[in-house]
Amino acid sequence: MNGDLQKILFDEQEIKNEIGRAAAWLDERFNGKNPVAVCVLKGAAMFFCDLVRAVKTDVQLDFITVSSYGSSTESSGKINILSDLSADVKGRDVILVEDIVDSGNTLFALQNLFLKRGAKSFTSVTLLDKPSRRKTDVCADYSCFEIGDEFIVGYGLDYAQKYRNLPYIAVLKREIYT
Ligand code: IMP
Ligand code: MG
C-alpha cells in the first residue's frame, strides 16, 4: 500500500461488485431507451469506464469537466464549466456519473444545468456518498458506497492531482493534507 494512505476502504473486487449492482439498476431503469451517460471529469473517469462497460443499455457517452477542489479539501461552493459536453441534451435522458457527492454543490449545479438545457430526465449515479458533509439538499439517485467524513483517494479520486491511478479506494493520512 502507498505510504501516504491510512487504510484501504474498498478493494478492486468490492468496487467491481458494486458496479455490477449499479449497472443492473441502470439497465432496469433505462431498458429500451438511449440515454446520454455523462462523466464528470476527472474524478469519475475510472468509475465511468467500468460502469458503462457493465451496462447492457445502449448509452451515448459524453464528458464534462467542472472546477472542483484544486489542492484543498474543501468545496468552494460554486462550480465553473472548464470543458462542456459535445451532445445536446435537449429531450434526452441524462445519466450523470459522479465520483463523490460531498457538499452536494456540484450535483445540485449540474442537475440544474441539464434540466435548464431541456433534458427529458435526470438521473445521478455516484461511486461514493458522504451524507454527513451535505450543504445542499440533494442526493444521488444511486450511490455505490456511503462513507463518513474522511478524505478519500484512488480509483479516480485525487488529492492535488495525485493518487487517481490507484486501483482501490483509500483514506488519505490526515498529515498529508493538513
Ligand atoms: P461537492 O462538494 O459535492 O460539490 O464535491 C465536489 C468534488 O469534490 C467531487 O466531485 C470530488 O472531485 C471532490 N471531493 C469531495 N470529497 C472528496 C474526497 O474525499 N476525495 C477526493 N475528492 C473529493
Ligand atoms: Mg469530481
Can you describe this structure?
The protein is of the alpha/beta class and 178 residues long. The protein has a single domain, classed as Rossmann fold (3-Layer(aba) Sandwich). It has 4 helices and 9 strands. The strands form 2 sheets. It has a 6-stranded mixed sheet with strand order 4-3-2-5-6-7, sandwiched between helices. α2 (45-54) links the parallel β2 and β3 (60-66). α1 crosses α2 (45-54). The longest helix is centred in the N-terminal third of the chain and has 18 residues, at 12-29. The mean pLDDT is 94. It binds inosinic acid and magnesium ion. Inosinic acid is lined by residues 43, 68-69, 75, 98-107, 151-153, 157.
Number of domains: 1
Arithmetic mean pLDDT: 94
Residue fraction in strands: 25-35%
Order of helices and strands: EHEHEEEHEEEEH
CATH topology: Rossmann fold
Structural class: alpha/beta
CATH architecture descriptor name: 3-Layer(aba) Sandwich
Distance between the termini: 21 Å
Helix run count = 4
- CATH class, named Alpha Beta
What's the shape? globular
Q: How are strands sequenced across the largest beta sheet?
A: 4-3-2-5-6-7
Unreliable parts: none
Taking the sheet with the most strands, its summary is: 6 strands, mixed
Oligomer: single chain
- In percent, how helical is the residue content? 10-25%
- Rg, rounded, reads 16 Å
Small molecules bound in the structure, each named once: inosinic acid, magnesium ion
Total strands: the figure is: 9
